[in-house]
Amino acid sequence: MDQVGRIEKIEGTKATVSVKRVSACGENCKGCSSACKQPSVIFETEMNGDYEVGDYVEITTENEVVFKQIFMLYGIPFLIMMATIVIVQLLSHSPDKDIISAIASVASLVVSFFILKAYDKTEMKKNTLKFTLGRKL
Question: How many structural domains compose the chain?
Answer without folding.
Answer: 1
